[in-house]
Amino acid sequence: MISSGKETLKLENQLCFRLYNLSKSMNRLYAPVLKELELTYPQYLVMLVLWQATEPLKVKALGEKLDLDTGTLSPLLKRMEKLNLLSRNRNKEDERSVEIKLTQHGQSLKTKAEHIPTQMFKVTKLSIDKLHNLNKMLDKLSENIG
Amino acid sequence: MISSGKETLKLENQLCFRLYNLSKSMNRLYAPVLKELELTYPQYLVMLVLWQATEPLKVKALGEKLDLDTGTLSPLLKRMEKLNLLSRNRNKEDERSVEIKLTQHGQSLKTKAEHIPTQMFKVTKLSIDKLHNLNKMLDKLSENIG
DNA sequence: TGCATTTAAGTTGTGCACAATGTATATTTT
DNA sequence: AAAATATACATTGTGCACAACTTAAATGCA
Hints:
Oligomer: homodimer
Number of strands of chain A: 3
Structural class of chain A: mainly alpha
Largest interface: A-B, 61 and 61 residues
Strand order of the largest sheet of chain A: 1-3-2
């Protein structure tokens, strides 16, 4: 039962705590694998977006895809530029925006990353059906609270 | 299909990205509600543990329940002590350990927090059955990767 | 055209997470 | 009992997240 009783304040009953812990667990799971590419987890997410992109992406577009604001993205992208993963250039047509492009090094990392999703899927020990089902439930939840 | 093909590196296909985003969304959902109690989300989790506890908890025990190490907990608990939420005292029997106890103020906040789980449950727009089902799937995943 | 408004990034400050290391106390081993 | 090991917590340093604010360029409109 869901009511304002004794049980509701128990840590173990909180969906948010499960998501918080799973997110941390995932991070820890990815960290050693990504270390081989010298990437942090958020940097990996940026790379995922850029590897898919067919043209330079503005910071704003990146932020929308990753649900991150410039307060997070600006320093993150600066660090990635320093690591020679990408370039940041002011758009000539609109000097407000900055275009993010992979460097050759950044592009070349894609090959080394291609095994990661499969490897991680195996670690979850989920069947493909269960994964799809879970994804669907999480998407629905995202839609409801996002 | 799961294989090392084109699709696997797509951001939208990553379970980890869903969890990462949902965790952030949850945080944002809780932030304004917790602000009324002057708590951050991790501080709220600490309070959930302490509100349930029948005796003072050692930092280590708290860390195990929350899956946080002392590098995170020590400064977090210090901030909470400063906010007059809890006290930190060296154990007389074992000077290595530190006992965490709620202050009266910390204890009194429990009443003000009692509406939060129910309120948050409503926001998710999930049925109780679906919530239980999702919780079960997430616990299973936790067990597999944790 | 001039000025207010909007838009795109960047900056500042706070609070986590966590790896790596340090410090002090307790326990175990010899 | 002395030395080695283990335990509990703290500290340092890096990298996010995000709120709040700033800066500069583009757009809208009187």
